[in-house]
Amino acid sequence: MGFSKILTASLFAGLLSALPLNSAPLIERSVNSLASLNGTAGVPHFGNENGNFMPAKKEFSTLATGGVVQGSLAVNSIVNEDGIGEGSDTYRRYTGDGGPEAGWPAMNQWVSFRAMFDNNKVLMFGACGWNAWGAVVFKTLISFTTHPSQKEFTNFDHVDDSGPEVGAIYNAIQQVAQETKVDHRFILATIIQESGGCVRVPTTNNGVRNPGLMQCHNGDGTCHSDITGQVQFPCPDGVITQMVREGTAGTRNGDGLAQVINQAVSTGGWGSRAFYIAARLYNSGSVNQGNMNDPVGATPCYVMDIANRLTGWTLAASQCGL
Known about the structure:
Residues 1-18 form the signal peptide. The chain is of the alpha+beta class. The protein has one domain (33-132, 159-310). It is 29% helix and 11% strand. The chain has eight helices and six strands; from the N terminus they run E-E-H-H-E-E-H-H-E-E-H-H-H-H. Strand 1 and strand 2 form a beta hairpin. Helix 1 (113-124) packs parallel to helix 4 (184-195), helix 3 (163-180) packs parallel to helix 5 and helix 7 (271-284) packs across helix 8. The protein starts with a strand and ends in a 12-residue tail after the last helix.
């Protein structure tokens, strides 16, 4: 029986005319002993299970939506070979105040941005599907040439990031790093921690609404709206940049990475320890200066995960155990 297929794809909120020209490459999906953000066992560990609990601001300065790192931690130029190279896909357990003297990795132990981005592509190309995020409806209309009838078949799939979408994440990180002077490796580590780089990650809300790649504080950028239910496919470059900018430069309602880095320095943080304090502030809104693993109501392993991502961790089993 001869037949022809006409493929169309529709989102929950509307139809798309065609499948993307550039699809994500097929990758072997290694597994991990911990669950991912949505609690699915047997997939790599990333994401923030409990949401970010940065308290809402009562007053907003001009930096609330345009934070820039000040002082010695400001990165004034983009250098992709800015670390020790590839690092290793190993998870190490750290305790204490986040300083090198307590065993936490110093900045001269961080991997280069180039290696970090390349090594995390396996997560970015697989995170949406692993977690069943951003369901897209694919409709196949089959016309039978030997019979005057048609039948429509509907399939649901969770579309992983495409090559162009991962490229847009790369471009957004570099652009926003220049705007905010935040180390681009810290931005990437936070993206992987919060969403695995899935551009269609859903919004979490456990007292604070956290949308987008960086699960920012009540921002607007998302390709999986909790308000309208719309899932965008492909995710526009401008929205991807907006998600990265809101998580890094801040929103109307809360701080981004730039502001929490400045806050960390102002409270005595220096070098790599300032970044680990900033990670705890981004996740929890406050910090126990003597214990980076104190969740202060949020995620215990958050800062330890960030430190490991900065030294090369991608798919190895987490040893956090908290």
